[in-house]
Amino acid sequence: MSAVPIDVESRPGARLLLLLPALALLLLFLVVPMFSVFRTSFFPGTSSMGATGFTLSQYARFFSSTLYNSVLLETVAYGIIVSVGCIVLGFPVGYSLARMPPAKRRLRMILIIVPLTLSLVVVVFGWMVLLGRQGLLNNLLLALGLIEAPRQLLFNRAAVLVVLIQQFLPFMILSIMNVVLQIDPVLEHASTSLRATRLTTFRKVVVPLAAPGIVSGFTLVFVMTVSAFVTPRLIGGARTQMLGGLIFDEVLTTMNWPFGAAMSFILLAVGLGVLALVNMLVVRRITRGLHVR
């Protein structure tokens, strides 16, 4: 007996049935735990065990501290800088991959995806070996005579930015490539035939059409950057503070779950606000460009 196919288009209820397993998983393992953490952020005191009541003291403690506010701003700054850096480095790669023949593209995509298969801890320790005082980079600079003594290349903001960009660059490349694949090259040829320069074609044709991929890549990289704590801790040391590391300390070291939960939702709210602002600016820019043309 052959199976009877389900006509999803003519039966809206079938769509809901197909979505139910995924919705149930999201509800059980994401929405319910997030609501529990959100409720914990309003507990008074420093422990959630047997705590009752409702207070904004945890949020007031955060916003009344210069230290926490500066760490929050620095975390957002890291997210924006890393995201923009990934766009600058990833767009040429993603565009070139999209314009390659499928056979060549497949091989190069493997090279881009391979770093994602490695453990984050392995990647970070590899960078520590590379940037250490007796590491490969210092030895190379000494051999070339560019420095007279080993330099401290670790435990600074620049090292953290470089490592974070290297970790999240593949996500930006893949996001941009998938969108550029859907852009018909005929549009670029038409722009050139109308005597537009390559820069004008790139700015007025390619970038607006690739904007969804840029925004999705920015969103992925930004979210992963602001929530990172392994890389800043090991590469940046005590000199580099990000909110993810402070949340980790509050939850697992001092066991102050209410304050850690409050910081988590502050980071979530600020992150969503930044992403909403970026999306609004991109949509406005595209709309304005369409009206101008």
Automatic annotation (TrEMBL):
PROSITE patterns: ABC_TM1. Keywords: Cell membrane, Membrane, Transmembrane, Transmembrane helix, Transport. Its main location: membrane. CDD domains: TM_PBP2 (cd06261). It is a multi-pass membrane protein. It is found in: Cell membrane. InterPro entries: MetI-like, MetI-like_sf. The chain crosses the membrane at residues 16-38, 76-98, 110-130, 158-181, 205-230, 259-283. Residues 72-278 form the ABC transmembrane type-1 domain. It holds the Pfam family BPD_transp_1. SUPFAM superfamilies: MetI-like (SSF161098). The keyword Transport applies. PANTHER family: ABC TRANSPORTER PERMEASE PROTEIN, INNER MEMBRANE ABC TRANSPORTER PERMEASE PROTEIN YDCU-RELATED-RELATED. Belongs to the binding-protein-dependent transport system permease family. CysTW subfamily. This is ABC transporter permease. It comes from Siccirubricoccus soli.
